[in-house]
Fold S-(hydroxymethyl)glutathione dehydrogenase.
Amino acid sequence: MKTRAAVAWEAGKPLTIEEIDVAEPKAGEVMVRMVATGVCHTDAYTLSGDDPEGIFPSVLGHEGGGVVEAVGPGVTSVAVGDHVIPLYTPECGKCKFCLSGKTNLCQAIRATQGQGLMPDGSSRFSKNGKPIFHYMGTSTFAEYTVLPEIAVAKINKAAPLDKVCLLGCGITTGIGAVLNTAKVEPGATVAVFGLGGIGLSVIQGAVLAKASRIIAVDINTEKFEMAKLLGATDFVNPSEYSDPIQNVIVDLTDGGVDYSFECVGNTNLMRSALECCHKGWGESVIIGVAGSGQEISTRPFQLVTGRVWRGTAFGGVKGRTQLPDYVEQYMRGDIKVDEMVTHTMGLDKINDAFDLMHEGKSIRSVIIY
Ligand code: NAD
Ligand code: AHE
Ligand code: ZN
Ligand code: ZN
């Protein structure tokens, strides 16, 4: 059948909206009609050409919400009509990683996912007979997309898909990084570098964890208002200081914060985030994704003296078993999502969403199909 999609034909070029072919789901796969999708900075990162796994032409997008339209042979865990959130971190429940109890990084289909293919090694998208690649196993910038059954989380049908789509990446990642990865304890001090959809969600997580002080750091001071609304207590613009920002934060906090989070994807800032942590116990979590060839560095002494460097993907959240409860927390009013939607638009205006992000004017744009 045909579907409308935003196609990334090559790196650094705007997406083009067109009709492409999408094949029926095969065994163990589902077709989902997307209702809405957020645009995350990772989509822009891959489109920029910096992602070593970026493949073109492809259908980007990984922050969606939709309805199951069809299921392939053998699919038992979801049915036509179910409301689902696509999972770029699937959960098979059977692989070494799923069974470890130590990580959410299911590896059952990671190899083909990284090649832009379905688990059987082929693509369901094409145009004029030529394949178009999938992205992150989700490709939510197509009205109809095909996903492996293990890469969808079934959620409460009462939840508005044009809001909870943001739980498919940004909000869950930020909150999960605090609660699952860092395990921030009540009374702890926190610094958040970068106040986009991810950093603001880290602030939400820090509030849920009852942090005593939440220092919001961004070079775009317009982001401070939303950070304050969500519960940040201190606001720091690195451009206003001549000293390295880690020194400024160490001075502000009697020796450094208990936890810091890098939510930008800037390797210099990752160093600052580590080095603003308290000697002996401070922990820094890398969430931002950095381009091909970029590396982090610090003096090993920083780690010898007790600071810890960690990273997180999707906030350590296991999609099929844990994401439905994030939706319930939103429904109860415990997680804020609506506030993060600063812009909505149709698929034909998706390039505006990328522009707004790059201009620092949006928190999240949501594309409504
Ligand atoms: P965004 O573009 O919405 O926000 C980035 C923020 O960083 C902006 O407010 C910007 O002003 C700020 N910033 C830029 N340079 C800065 C600097 N030098 N110092 C301080 N602030 C600076 O992006 P987002 O969607 O929130 O994503 C943030 C990062 O997280 C990206 O790298 C994205 O790829 C990554 N990400 C990772 C995961 C994961 O699972 N690890 C999930 C989602 C997103
Ligand atoms: N292909 C990229 C990987 C980028 C990356 O780390 N992605 C995160 C999710 S970002 C969502 O906005 C992730 O899940 N990582 C774990 C994984 O297995 O990809 C690169 O830089 O190589
Ligand atoms: Zn994302
Ligand atoms: Zn698994």
Observations:
- The chain has a mean pLDDT of 98.
- The chain has twelve helices and 17 strands.
- Residues 40, 42, 62-63, 169-170 surround zinc ion (ligand 3) (CB under 6 Å).
- The two ends are 17 Å apart (CA to CA).
